[in-house]
Amino acid sequence: MNPLNRRQFLKSTTASGAGLLILPTGTLFGQNRPSSKLNIALIGVWGRGLQHYNVLKNENVVALCDVNELRFEDALKVFPGAKTYIDWRKCIEQKDIDAVLCCTPDHHHAHIAIWAMNRNKHVYMEKPIALTVEESRLVREKYLAKKSKLATQAGTQRHAIPNFARVREMVQDGAIGDLQGAFAWGNRQLPKPGYLPAQGSPPDTFHFDLWLGPSPEHPYNPEYFSGKQGANCLQWNMYWDFGTGQVGDMGNHTMDLVWNAIDAKWPTAVEASGEAFNRDVTPVRLITHFDHPSNNWRPEIRVSWFQGGALPNSPARWIDLDVIGHGAMFKGTKGVLLADFSTRTLIPAAGADLTYYKPRPVEKLIPPVGGFQEEWINACKGDPTKTSCNFDYNGLMTEQMALGLVAYRVGKKLKYDGVKGLTDDAEANKLLRREHRLGWTLDG
Length: 444
Ligand SMILES: NC(=O)c1ccc[n+]([C@@H]2O[C@H](COP(=O)([O-])OP(=O)(O)OC[C@H]3O[C@@H](n4cnc5c(N)ncnc54)[C@H](O)[C@@H]3O)[C@@H](O)[C@H]2O)c1
Known about the structure:
- This protein is of the alpha/beta class.
- The protein has helices at residues 3-15, 53-56, 72-78, 88-91, 109-118, 133-145, 162-172, 208-212, 233-236, 250-262, 372-381, 393-410, 426-430; strands spanning 39-43, 60-65, 83-85, 99-102, 122-125, 152-154, 179-186, 269-274, 286-292, 301-307, 326-332, 335-339, 344-348, 414-417, 422-423.
- The chain binds nicotinamide-adenine-dinucleotide.
């Protein structure tokens, strides 16, 4: 049975509560057991990968892939039935896989997402789902073409914090009047001088060339791999060939607070400023502005991202935005809404009496997401459209943020045609994409 038919079957057994159905051995699941569990490949098994083990334990992890062979020993204790791979291009070909959960470094994300969707696998992709505008668009397009069959989730798990829904409701129910602008910022600073010099050689158990994957060659240096479990990304995500700095790191989480509330698609213009350009390293300090057209409930707005110590103007003398390390602010005709991931504060404008604010009744509140990874698992087994951060929603946001880095690099205000995925500047258009090494086709 091909993966999609098998999935249809899972869907119907789950929906009818027929999880106890005894299946003909080996014919439906590629594994010799009756089950309504998903067959999952975990790509990148350590670090962030460990955060997913508790949910994965309830499913069949049939494949483990990591470029560091030493990571398999512990992973196999938890998922003893899994086959192991060092190259995700081979892993993804394993026929019985229904779904891929990917926790590799960022420079593989778009590739893995696209290769997996091309093979009809559901995908949970750690954020950011892509590095460039071209990659974000292709991930989104691939998803849109199969959205009735494939469940996708970008790893912005903070989205499940109920505050995200409450912020959206307050903005849309008129707590600040008509929305005029939205801002997000993050204060993480990881300055680096440039790519690391050659130092030593990788152990036989570590496949550095596969780690580089689609990115250009760089000499090995163990410093790229010296970070704490779950935070090793901070050792490589500042370098242009491996990440997008805070844009794809905390920016993906924090802009999500804004993106979730504004129902935006493509910006029509973008401009950026920041520290002097470094050809190796993404900027610490960066300010990007995106002009978004009006939609059916709000006027045209400007959306801004500030990082590395840059901040929007405070709405009041007595509010120090710097205290909110990662925050969002919505300005409206009747006041301001400030938020961090879990709390929010409404500041009505002078003279605003709140009579215009009609909070929705309790039965109309946005339902809780619940477990973020579980939401994806349930969508894989049931209705694939039921994830809160699918590759349409997150793909547009990631495209916007990547576009901001292009405007920063060319140092000009750019017009953007979202339908075509092109700016009005030839130099900028070249930066919407990156070269991928031979053997690492994006649409493979
Ligand atoms: N959602 C969150 O809150 C959150 C938090 C931390 C990290 N992350 C994301 O998770 C990802 C991983 O971050 P990390 O800190 O765990 O990084 P890491 O450098 O520790 O890598 C994670 C694992 O992937 C393996 N790996 C590296 N390249 C691989 C490849 N080509 N194929 C297979 N395995 C490979 C590594 O050996 C390691 O075991 C990043 O994209 C990061 O942005 C998300």
